[in-house]
């Protein structure tokens, strides 16, 4: 939840164009994630998490649409 909350914050701040966070957005995510969790991850690791969450979300939407 922490990662999702931080991503939403960066989106609200305008640090995401259409599908990707800009450099400032990634910098803020890395810094704020470390401050909240004490765990240090780089941009590639957080981007992998972001990409996986997007895939999971798309799959969930597909499953939900198919079940109605």
TrEMBL record:
<dbReference type="Pfam" id="PF12776">
    <property type="entry name" value="Myb_DNA-bind_3"/>
</dbReference>
<feature type="domain" description="Myb/SANT-like">
    <location>
        <begin position="2"/>
        <end position="65"/>
    </location>
</feature>
<dbReference type="InterPro" id="IPR024752">
    <property type="entry name" value="Myb/SANT-like_dom"/>
</dbReference>
<protein>
    <recommendedName>
        <fullName>Myb/SANT-like domain-containing protein</fullName>
    </recommendedName>
</protein>
């Amino acid at each position: 939840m922490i990662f999702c909350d931080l991503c939403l914050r960066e989106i609200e701040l305008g640090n995401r164009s259409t599908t990707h966070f800009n450099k400032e957005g990634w910098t803020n995510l890395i810094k704020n994630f470390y401050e909240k969790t004490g765990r240090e991850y780089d941009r590639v690791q957080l981007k992998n998490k972001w990409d996986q969450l997007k895939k999971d979300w798309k799959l969930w939407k597909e499953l939900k649409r198919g079940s109605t």
